[in-house]
Write a structure and sequence with these properties.
Elements (H helix, E strand, L loop, with lengths): L2 H26 L5 H4 L2 E5 L5 E6 L3 H14 L4 H11 L3 H23 L9 H13 L5 H6 L1 H22 L9 H16 L3 H20 L5 H19 L2 H9 L10 H33 L6 H14 L13 H17 L4 H45 L4 E5 L26 H10 L3 E5 L5 E2 L1
Parallel strand pairs: 3-4
Antiparallel strand pairs: 1-2, 3-5
Helix pairs in contact: 1-5, 1-6, 3-4, 3-12, 4-8, 5-6, 5-8, 5-15, 6-15, 6-16, 8-9, 8-10, 9-11, 10-11, 10-14, 13-14, 13-15, 14-15
Length: about 450
């Protein structure tokens, strides 16, 4: 067996192991909070708020809900379609697809870091393992990767954006493709990337514009793919930002426009938050990017380009009135790409990356018992609540009181970090109403007690 074939097989084994681990985590994680909200048809109340009015019955209900959401809540049309569509399917379908989405992100990161067609010294496999282990240290692991609503909003969107940007950083990947077909395909991928997540989309627009202008200036024959992708990205971003719902949602946070005077203070505050969570990744990313550029005497600035994408992802958040930890994922991904690309460009010896993987694995394993305990406790609670609701429904009781999930203890929990709650004591709250529609009862009231009881 030649070396290239061995490398490919090792890469396949690494990706398979990552998929299995993610699938196990996904199977343990139940539907929670907004998952039930998006399992409903959504309408606009007289006060302008988006509210559930019954279970989804099919794609037509999803389209009506998206139209109402676009007007009153958010412009993330492809994201909401997927979130609501998955609620029509068995949970296992999402668990399978979501595990593949994580593997796709890992593979895309490794491909950006190891763009060469010939993979020497198992660089792709090693990069994939390193990328997965770093991503498993995400500050909002449960929200970004396991929570159905959160994963589609964050994991899936950054995956599409990273895949979309690969030919902008490495044009050779599509050099052998039919350029017209590739341009049409990349227009579609760019449309999805641009119409996904606000800060990531803004970053994507900047990167693809700069790359396309550079290729046009150098009369690159592959520029058709880049032009098609750039047009799609920009068009998607326009559709995303044109949604009236974005501004109504911001108004709910007390922001009716972009307060220019608050931008410096927000930039400092959000950067401090990012530093608190990701300093261990930011420091090597900055040092390696600068050293790579300096050591090449300015001939290779790609590492600075990756670092710039991370900074754009981060600082574009200053337009938002809040900076939850789950939104750090895009910045984290491009800091990770910066590190990996620099390591391979500088030809750092493989054992260093291997031992880094060992250290990261130990760190994950040390956190795993508490994280799994947190997730299993949530699964037990939701299974117990579900069984109790069906028992009460069978007994003729349609007004139910059930326990509210306790506060998350670790970042593996989907409600970690942002004071989220899966349920309220008020049965007229949107989450309670959504849960009642999901189970087909009249009302569901939450209470902080550990055991369910009759109303």
């Amino acid at each position: 067996m030649n070396r290239k074939m061995q490398s490919r097989r090792l890469s396949g084994v690494v990706l398979l192991v990552i998929w299995i681990v993610m699938f196990i985590w996904n199977r343990i994680t139940p539907l929670i909070a907004d998952d039930f909200f998006f399992s409903c048809r959504l309408f606009i109340r007289p006060d302008g708020m988006l509210f559930p009015e019954g279970r989804l019955r099919g794609v037509l209900d999803i389209l009506v809900s998206i139209k109402n959401s676009y007007v009153s809540h958010s412009g993330r049309v492809p994201v909401q379609f997927l979130v609501q569509f998955f609620t029509l399917l068995p949970e296992t379908v999402f668990d399978l697809a979501n595990s593949f989405a994580f593997v796709a992100l890992v593979a895309a990161i490794a491909r950006l870091a190891v763009p060469a067609a010939t993979d020497k010294s198992n660089a792709f496999a090693l990069s994939a393992a390193f990328a997965a282990l770093v991503l498993w240290e995400a500050p909002a692991f449960g929200q970004d990767y396991l929570w159905q609503t959160g994963a589609v909003n964050y994991l899936w969107t950054i995956t599409v954006t990273v895949v979309f940007l690969i030919p902008f950083y490495n044009p050779d990947v599509l050099a052998r493709s039919n350029q017209k077909c590739a341009a049409c395909l990349w227009f579609a991928v760019g449309l999805l990337s641009g119409w996904s997540m606000e800060n990531q989309s803004a970053m994507g627009c900047a990167v693809c514009l700069l790359a396309t202008v550079y290729r046009l200036a150098h009369h690159d024959r592959r520029r058709g793919v880049l032009i098609g992708g750039t047009v799609g990205q920009l068009l998607g971003f326009v559709f995303l930002m044109a949604a009236p719902g974005n501004y109504r949602r911001s108004a709910g946070y007390g922001q009716t426009g972009i307060p220019l005077g608050l931008i410096p203070a927000r930039a400092a505050q959000y950067t401090q938050s990012l530093w608190n969570e990701l300093w261990w990744l930011a420091i090597p990313a900055v040092l390696l990017a600068v050293y790579t550029a300096v050591s090449s005497k300015g001939r290779n600035l790609k590492s600075l380009g990756f670092l710039g994408a991370a900074l754009l992802c981060h600082f574009s958040m200053v337009a938002s009135p809040s900076y939850p930890m789950r939104t750090m994922l895009g910045t984290m991904v491009f800091l990770l790409v910066t590190v990996l690309y620099s390591v391979h460009t500088l030809r750092v010896k493989a054992p260093i990356l291997s031992w880094s993987c060992v250290g990261l694995l130990i760190a994950v394993l040390l956190q795993l018992p508490a994280g799994m305990s947190d997730l299993l406790a949530l699964r037990h609670l939701t299974d117990t609540r579900s069984a109790y609701i069906y028992d009460q429904l069978a007994a003729g009781n349609r007004d139910i009181t059930i326990p509210i999930a306790q506060a998350a203890k670790t970042r593996f929990h989907p409600l970690w970090g942002d004071a989220l709650s899966d349920l309220m004591q008020n049965p007229e709250n949107e989450r309670n109403v959504s849960l009642a529609f999901y189970y087909g009862v009249d009302t569901i009231r939450g209470r902080p007690n550990p055991e369910p009881s009759d109303s």
